[in-house]
Amino acid sequence: MIKVDVQCKSFGETPVLGKVSLTIEKGETVAILGPSGIGKSTLLRIIAGIDDDYHGTVVRPDNMAIVFQEPTLLPWRSVIQNLTLLHPDLSKSNATEMLERVGIADKSGLFPGQLSLGQQRRLALARAFAGAPDFLVMDEPFVSLDAGTATAMLELTETLIADCKPATLFVTHSQAEATRLATRIHTLSGSPATLDLITQKGT
Ligand SMILES: Nc1ncnc2c1ncn2[C@@H]1O[C@H](COP(=O)(O)OP(=O)(O)O)[C@@H](O)[C@H]1O
Ligand SMILES: [Mg+2]
């Protein structure tokens, strides 16, 4: 369903990524694990189609959702508007139901600045799943949260993925998150960075 064949990616004269081959099927959750600065976000932007300045090819479905490290909400739009702007076909009751699922239905009329970071992330998750994506991409979606909130977000994400069953790619520096969520874990290491398979969960 998703087929990644990167030959190399450089910033100026500096190669950041070497050869990276990866396929992800519907229902799989693939984690890419690696330390800060190794090239995870660079690879994610290529796979998501945000960066096309690289050598190689990526095949991906059209119905894709991305959850960034920052919640990337529109500050001057209410919670429910942040959800429906991207999904104009979503009925009010379906939008409200989605907010209920992520636990922020009571914040519907507030603005993003009036939410905690955890609540903003919940809204970003609701927005990602509202379109029932075939391909979900997440870049360190649980960083900078306290341990309890991070665990709650992880459990919520797990439930949403189990219901929607997209092909999922998520990038993290946390072994614990990768082990918890992923059906397959790759590490990104070296300079320029390449992928290794470290774990495949039996199904
Ligand atoms: N737009 C850019 N221009 C130049 N260098 C960049 C750019 N984006 C990222 N880099 C460099 O590429 C490397 C990988 O960055 P990144 O993919 O953000 O790492 P990670 O997400 O694993 O922390 C870093 O050395 C970073 O400084
Ligand atoms: Mg990053």
Ligands (ions, cofactors included): adenosine-5'-diphosphate, magnesium ion
Instruction: Calculate Rg over CA atoms.
Output: 17 Å
Give me the number of helical elements.
Answer: 6
Low-confidence stretches: none
How many strands, what sense, and barrel or not for the largest sheet? 6 strands, mixed
Describe the structure.
The chain is of the alpha/beta class and 203 residues long. The chain has a domain at 1-63 and 134-143 and 165-203: Rossmann fold. Helix content is 33%, strand content 28%. It is built from 6 helices and 10 strands; from the N terminus they run ββββαββαααβαβαββ. It has helices at residues 40-48, 79-86, 92-101, 117-130, 147-164, 175-181; strands spanning 2-11, 14-17, 20-24, 29-33, 55-59, 64-67, 135-139, 167-172, 184-189, 194-200. A 6-stranded mixed beta sheet has the order 6-7-8-4-9-10, sandwiched between helices. Strands 1, 2, 3 and 5 form a 4-stranded antiparallel beta sheet that branches. α2 runs parallel beside α4 (117-130). The longest helix has 18 residues, at 147-164. The chain is globular and about 45 Å long. The two termini are 18 Å apart. It binds adenosine-5'-diphosphate and magnesium ion. The site of magnesium ion (MG) has 4 residues, from α1. The site of adenosine-5'-diphosphate has 10 residues, from α1.
